[in-house]
């Protein structure tokens, strides 16, 4: 399983004690705006259980992000296999969810760079994708900062978003090729 460290951050595998702060994060309407709203405890516990299994199988998954200065759980980031079918799958995605108290400091960009290096240099993946609800501007800004690029022809309706949440259905897809920008 994978632990990554940057100047300010550690991304490490899940522990049972992470359920509580992850539940708090997943109860915040601002954080969950593009995920259909706050999630009940049973859902959060199930997400952690599944993530623990997947990180064992895949070596990494969306996993806790720890602020070194305080040791606090401040969000989740990571790479994961896309588990639904779409025109761009099979694919490996990069993703993030951060406590708003820590927005605006470049923390997700910092750990995102570490995950990109890990994905391309240690795992040898050809490409990473990232996707978001079409108007999730903060997430799209992270993708752009990390060098991901957008082709409108890749945009898609997320098959796992229920029809009664139609405003969350349309997604933009961004891609980053291994070696992009290097001569
Ligand atoms: C998406 C999300 C993770 C982005 O968080 P963020 O803090 O904006 O992202 P970053 O860590 O890259 O920080 C960028 C901001 O820090 C600033 N910054 C400060 N120092 C920086 C540095 N060294 N490097 C980069 N940016 C820096 C940038 O200018 C930018 O500020 P701005 O918001 O005023 O434009 C966050 O908004 C979130 O958790 N949203 C809810 C969950 C969600 O929707 N997840 C995505 C689902 S697809």
TrEMBL record:
Coiled-coil boundaries: none
Short name of one Pfam family: Acetyltransf_3
Source organism superkingdom: Bacteria
PROSITE patterns, sorted: GNAT
Keywords noted in UniProt: Transferase
GO molecular function terms noted in the UniProt entry: acyltransferase activity, transferring groups other than amino-acyl groups
Domain N-acetyltransferase: 9-179
Alphabetical list of PANTHER family matching this protein: GNAT FAMILY, PUTATIVE (AFU_ORTHOLOGUE AFUA_3G00765)-RELATED-RELATED, N-ACETYLTRANSFERASE DOMAIN-CONTAINING PROTEIN
Name of the protein: Protein N-acetyltransferase, RimJ/RimL family
Organism this protein belongs to: Fulvimarina manganoxydans
């Amino acid at each position: 399983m994978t632990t990554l460290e940057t100047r300010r951050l550690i991304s490490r595998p899940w522990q049972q004690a992470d359920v509580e702060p992850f539940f708090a994060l997943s109860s915040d309407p601002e954080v969950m705006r593009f995920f259909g709203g706050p999630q009940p405890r049973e859902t959060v516990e199930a997400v952690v259980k599944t993530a623990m299994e997947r990180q064992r199988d895949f070596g990494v998954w969306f996993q806790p992000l720890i602020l070194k200065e305080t040791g606090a759980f401040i969000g989740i980031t990571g790479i994961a296999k896309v588990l639904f079918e779409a025109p761009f799958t099979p694919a490996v995605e990069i993703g993030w969810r951060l406590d708003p108290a820590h927005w605006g400091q470049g923390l997700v960009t910092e750990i995102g760079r570490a995950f990109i290096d890990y994905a391309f240099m240690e795992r040898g993946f050809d490409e990473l994708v990232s996707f978001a609800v079409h108007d999730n501007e903060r997430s799209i800004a992270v993708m752009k900062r990390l060098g991901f690029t957008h082709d409108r022809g890749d945009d898609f309706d997320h098959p796992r978003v229920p029809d009664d949440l139609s405003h969350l259905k349309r997604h933009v897809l961004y891609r980053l090729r291994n070696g992009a920008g290097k001569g």
